[in-house]
Write a structure and sequence with these properties.
Elements lengths: L5 E3 L10 E3 L11 H14 L7 H24 L4 H10 L1 H17 L2 H21 L2 H7 L1 H6 L9 H12 L3 H12 L1
Antiparallel strand pairs: 1-2
């Protein structure tokens, strides 16, 4: 990938010539939740470049990501707490890997344009499937078979949870109390 130049028309009081910016690397990145989501996406897609295991790891992470996104609508509607969502997701990680894998197959086997089109069709259907399903009851019913097969809880969110809790512990207690008071009002 080469460096591209683009011009920005900027009228100044001293000179009226366009300003040339050498590359777009200094462009302002989104902040807040949008920036976090972009950062997570970059990390997931970057795993595909790890030698030997990168493609498999990328496939698994993307499958989990799409499955979580599909079930997120249902969990939000049912007001399921985040800790219960994550515990459920970590307990039944093979189900979620399988649920999200058809969406990821399009990415791996087709060109980007075609895969985006397929995803535009599949994703809403998968959200409807997840929302209308009673996967919690079905999976819990089959739980004894999973344990017999040696499938254990996989702490997928362990690092993220510990880092988040550590960062929250750095906040002063007074500010936390003030934030809780504001929420109560």
């Amino acid at each position: 990938m080469g460096r591209s130049k683009f011009t920005v028309e900027k009228v100044s009081s001293q000179n009226n010539s366009p300003t040339t910016i050498p590359n777009a690397s200094h462009a302002k990145r989104p902040s807040g939740l949008g920036g976090v989501m972009i950062g997570i996406g970059e990390q997931v897609y970057a795993t595909g470049f790890i030698p030997y295991i990168g493609k498999v790891l990328n496939f698994l992470l993307l499958s989990w990501m799409y499955a979580y996104y599909c079930f997120e609508y249902k969990w939000n509607f049912n007001e399921v707490a985040l800790d219960r969502r994550l515990d459920y997701f970590e307990s039944y990680w093979p189900f979620f890997a399988g649920f999200g894998s058809p969406c990821v197959l399009a990415i791996f086997f087709f060109s980007p344009l075609v895969s985006y089109g397929i995803m535009a069709i599949l994703f809403p259907l998968f959200v409807l499937t997840a929302t209308g399903s009673e996967a919690e009851q079905e999976i819990s019913f089959e739980k004894h078979k999973w344990k017999a097969a040696g499938v254990e809880r996989l702490p997928i969110f362990y690092v993220a949870d510990n880092v988040s809790m550590w960062m929250l512990s750095l906040l002063p207690l007074e500010k936390r109390d003030q934030m809780e008071d504001r929420k109560a009002q």
